[in-house]
Write a structure and sequence with these properties.
110 residues; mainly alpha; 3 helices; 47% helix
Length: 110
C-alpha cells in the first residue's frame, strides 16, 4: 500500500514539475512574442486625436489611457458593497454612478 502511494506521489510530483516548466516557458515566450516591434511602430505611427476637451495639450484618448494606467498602478482596494447615493468609503475603488456625457473627464474626488 505504501509503495503504491509513493508511486502516485512521485508521478504527481513529476507532473507538477512538468506543468511548472511549461508555464515558465510560456511566460518567457509570451514576453518575447508580444514585445513591441520597431518595424510595426514605424509602419503604424501613433496618431493622436485632435480633441482636447480639457485644453491641457494632451489629446483625450491619451488622457484616458494615462488615467487608467495611474489608477491601475495605484492598486486600489475594491469593495463590493452598495452605498446609498453613490458615495463610497475613502480609499476604495467602488465607482459612483456617473451620468452619460459627464461634462468633465477629470476624476472626481469624494
Amino acid at each position: 500500500m505504501a509503495r503504491g502511494l509513493r508511486r502516485v506521489a512521485t508521478i504527481a510530483g513529476v507532473m507538477f514539475l512538468v506543468v511548472l516548466c511549461v508555464a515558465a516557458l510560456l511566460v518567457a515566450l509570451g514576453s518575447w512574442w508580444f514585445a513591441p516591434d520597431a518595424g510595426v511602430a514605424a509602419q503604424y505611427p501613433l496618431v493622436p486625436s485632435e480633441v482636447d476637451f480639457d485644453g491641457d495639450g494632451v489629446d483625450d484618448y491619451t488622457d484616458l489611457l494615462d488615467g487608467a494606467r495611474a489608477e491601475a498602478e495605484a492598486a486600489p482596494a475594491y469593495d463590493s458593497g452598495y452605498y446609498e447615493g453613490g458615495a463610497t468609503r475613502p480609499k476604495t475603488a467602488v465607482p459612483a454612478p456617473i451620468p452619460f456625457g459627464a461634462p468633465s473627464l477629470q476624476r472626481a474626488t469624494i
